[in-house]
C-alpha cells in the first residue's frame, strides 16, 4: 500500500527541528565582555580579565546581531591606562609612609651584607697595619661593583619571585604588574631605574610618586608596576623577620673576624691609595684624596 502525502503538522514539526538544529550548531562558543571587550566563554558569569559580571543574555544578543561578536583572530589588548584603572579598582595602593619604612628596613639589611663584603674586599685589596687602613682604587672599585650588584639582585629576584622584598613583606606591601608584561623584565626595569629615582636621597622618586594618582615613581611608570597593600600570612612575616635579624646578627659576628685577618693582595693596576682611615692617641682621622678630617677626642676626666 503506497504511503499517503505528509500532513501539514508533520512538515511543520520537521521544519522546526531543522531550525533548532541549525541554531545549536551555529551557537557561538565565545562572546565579548561588555566591559573590556575581551573574549569570554558563552556561559561565563564573570570576565577573567577585568572581573566584570557578564549579563545572562549576552550570548543571545550577539546571536541576534544586536552586538558585535568577539573575533578570535584579533583579540583586544588592554592599554596601560585601562589596566592601571582596573588595578586601582581591585587593590588599595600602598601609602608613601609604608613604602619609606620598607625602604629603611631593606637598606638596614643591605648595609649588613655590604659590611661583610666590604670588609673582605678592603682587607684583601687594601692595607691595614693596626693603626691605619689604606684603601686603594682597586678596593674601592671592586666594593662599589659588588655593592651595586647585590642591591640590584636583592630587589630584582625577590620582587620577581615573591612580589616583595623582606622589608615590604614586614610592612605588608607588594609589587603588581599593571600590564601583561614579563615579571622578570618589569622588575629589572623597576630596579635599574632606582638610579634616577634615588637622586637627592630619593627626592626625585618621592616627588613623582606624590604627584601620581596611583603613587608610581619613575621606575614603576616605565616598568608598568604598582605597589599595593597586601596581607601576608604570619608565616611569611615571621620568616622575613628571622632572615632580617639573622642577616644583621651575622654581619656583626663576621665583620670583626674578617678584619682580624690581613691577607692583602697587591695589584699591578689601580694600586694608588685613595682613602686613609686611622687614629692616634687623642684623635681619629679620615684622609680622602689629600683632604683630611680630624676628630679629636678629649681624655680630660669630668670635674664636679
The major pleated sheet works out as: 5 strands, antiparallel
Strand neighbour order, sheet with most strands: 3-4-7-8-9
Helix content: 40-55%
In the predicted model, the low-confidence regions spanning at least 5 consecutive residues are: 68-79
SSE sequence, one letter per element: HEEHHHEEHHEHHHHEHEEE
Question: What Rg do the Cα atoms give?
Answer: 33 Å
Number of helices: 11
Strand runs, count: 9
Principal-axes geometry comes out as elongated
Strand content: 5-15%
Residue-averaged pLDDT: 80
Q: Distance N terminus to C terminus?
A: 140 Å
Global structural class: alpha+beta
Account of the protein in words:
The chain is of the alpha+beta class. Among the domains are: 30-70, no CATH class; 88-128 and 135-264, no CATH class. 51% of the residues lie in helices and 14% in strands. It contains eleven helices and nine strands. It has helices spanning 8-25, 58-63, 80-90, 96-125, 137-161, 166-171, 183-192, 194-197, 199-211, 218-223, 234-259, and strands at residues 30-32, 39-41, 127-128, 132-136, 173-177, 225-229, 273-279, 283-288, 291-296. A five-stranded antiparallel sheet has the order 3-4-7-8-9. The chain has a two-stranded antiparallel sheet with strand order 1-2. Strands 5-6 form a two-stranded antiparallel ribbon. Helix 5 (137-161) packs antiparallel against helix 7. The chain is elongated, with a radius of gyration of 33 Å. The termini are far apart.
Amino acid at each position: 500500500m503506497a504511503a499517503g502525502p505528509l500532513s501539514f503538522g508533520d512538515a511543520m514539526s520537521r521544519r522546526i527541528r531543522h531550525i533548532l538544529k541549525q541554531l545549536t550548531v551555529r551557537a557561538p562558543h565565545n562572546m565579548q565582555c561588555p566591559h573590556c571587550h575581551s573574549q569570554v566563554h558563552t556561559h561565563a558569569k564573570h570576565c577573567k580579565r577585568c572581573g566584570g559580571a557578564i549579563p545572562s543574555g549576552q550570548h543571545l544578543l550577539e546571536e541576534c546581531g544586536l552586538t558585535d561578536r568577539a573575533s578570535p583572530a584579533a583579540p583586544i589588548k588592554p592599554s596601560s591606562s585601562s589596566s592601571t584603572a582596573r588595578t586601582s579598582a581591585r587593590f588599595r595602593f600602598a601609602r608613601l609612609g609604608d613604602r619609606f619604612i620598607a625602604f629603611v628596613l631593606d637598606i638596614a639589611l643591605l648595609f649588613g651584607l655590604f659590611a661583610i663584603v666590604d670588609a673582605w674586599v678592603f682587607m684583601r685589596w687594601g692595607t691595614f697595619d693596626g693603626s691605619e687602613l689604606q684603601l686603594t682604587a682597586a678596593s674601592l672599585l671592586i666594593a662599589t661593583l659588588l655593592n651595586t650588584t647585590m642591591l640590584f639582585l636583592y630587589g630584582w629576584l625577590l620582587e620577581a619571585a615573591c612580589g616583595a622584598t623582606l622589608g615590604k613583606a614586614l610592612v605588608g606591601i607588594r609589587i603588581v604588574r599593571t600590564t601583561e608584561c614579563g615579571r622578570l623584565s618589569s622588575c629589572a626595569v623597576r630596579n635599574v631605574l632606582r638610579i634616577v629615582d634615588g637622586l637627592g636621597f630619593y627626592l626625585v622618586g618621592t616627588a613623582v610618586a606624590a604627584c601620581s594618582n596611583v603613587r608610581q615613581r619613575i621606575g614603576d611608570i616605565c616598568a608598568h608596576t604598582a605597589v599595593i597593600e597586601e596581607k601576608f600570612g604570619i608565616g611569611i612575616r615571621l620568616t622575613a623577620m628571622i632572615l632580617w635579624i639573622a642577616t644583621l646578627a651575622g654581619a656583626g659576628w663576621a665583620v670583626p673576624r674578617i678584619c682580624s685577618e690581613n691577607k692583602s693582595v697587591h695589584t699591578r693596576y689601580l694600586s694608588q691609595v685613595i682613602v686613609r682611615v686611622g687614629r692616634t692617641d687623642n684623635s681619629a682621622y679620615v684622609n680622602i684624596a689629600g683632604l683630611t678630617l680630624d676628630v679629636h677626642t678629649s681624655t680630660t676626666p669630668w670635674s664636679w
